[in-house]
Amino acid sequence: MIEQINDNSKAIIRLNRPEVKNAFNPKMIGEITKAFQSYGPVSDVRCVIIEAAGPVFCAGADLNWMQSLIETDFHHNQKDAELLHGMFQSIWDCPVPVVCKVQGSAFGGALGLMACSDYVIAEESVKMSFSEVKLGIAPSVISEFVMRKNIPSVVASWMMSGHIFTAHDAYHSGLVHKVVKMEEMNEVADKYVKSVCDSGPEAVRATKKLIRDLEGTERSKVKDLTTALIARLRVSNEGQEGIKSFLEKRKPNWIQK
After folding, report:
1. Around Cβ 29, how many Cβ atoms within 10 Å?
2. Over the stretch 161-219, which tens digit does the pLDDT of each residue have?
3. How far apart are CA 195 and CA 157, in angstroms?
4. Which among 82, 67, 145, 136 has a CA at the least distance from the CA of 111?
5. Backbone angles phi, psi at 251, to 5 degrees
6. What is the C-alpha separation between 229 and 207, in angstroms, rounded?
7. Taking a C-beta distance cutoff of 8 angstroms, is the pair 95, 40 a contact?
8. Fewer CB within 10 Å, N side or C side of the chain?
9. For the segment 19-45, what is each residue's pLDDT rounded down to a tens digit?
10. What is the rounded CA–CA span in Å between residue 170 and residue 164?
11. What's the burial of 181, exposed, middle or buried (CB within 10 Å: 0-12/13-18/19+)?
12. Contact (CB, 8 A) for 128 and 106
């Protein structure tokens, strides 16, 4: 269903059902969730890449899975949806940056994978759609994550219509960070991953956590949150090494030789 590859400080999660356009089913959902839950506080992984085998990134939900859900009741469907939400939450909660490489097309739940990622690279001819309304349902599970990083009025119109939009449209909405030619995809991804891995690993994790924490922090408590963090990082071993290496004009010890 997926391939999980660890390459030094980089991990790759590859959707591997090209025969069905990498569509989700319960087994794939479980495997993705388990994979992302493995990148916890003690993991040596410093960046995770989501990619897909074959010409299509992801077609959303598997048709056979959807057909089986028709024959079940409300409670079964809700439990099933909670497992899907858990997958997206595990990606959102990943403590290190997540890069998503998108080619071909991305429909339905595939856009949830993109929304939960920190840096999304899309091939210039990609077609995307919140296609759920065409099936008489709603993009409800992914909406929480999509709305956090998109211009609401733009993405709302796509959600309500099921309209097919382009990688460039997604770039302007905030869903995509970089639009590239297919032959440039790996180079652009590698450049971003190298930039992450050349940065202090604890600083990167702390910055990602800060971004997440700011969303739910009361304005009156923001100063305490931010000043305490910078003070802690300045006196940490990594912070001390980073500042000293800069002043001494050498590479810090976390950069692999």
Report:
1. 23
2. 999 999 999 999 999 999 999 999 999 999 999 999 999 999 999 999 999 999 889 98
3. 35
4. 145
5. -80, 140
6. 9
7. yes
8. C
9. 999 999 999 999 999 999 999 877 889
10. 11
11. exposed
12. yes
Reported pTM? 0.94
Contact between 118 and 95 (Cβ < 8 Å): no
Tell me the three-class secondary structure of 154-198, residue by residue.
Answer: HHHHHHHHCCCEEHHHHHHHCCCCEEECHHHHHHHHHHHHHHHHC
Residue 209: predicted pLDDT: 95
Mean of all residue pLDDT scores within the chain: 94
Spatial contact of 2 and 14, defined as CB atoms under 8 Å apart? yes
Q: For 69-124, what is each residue's pLDDT tens digit?
A: 888 899 989 999 999 999 999 999 999 999 999 999 999 999 999 999 999 999 99
Tokens of 84: 């899907």
Distances (CA, A) of 233 to 96, 107, 216, 241: 17, 41, 22, 11
Half-sphere exposure of 183 (CA within 13 A, CB side): 0
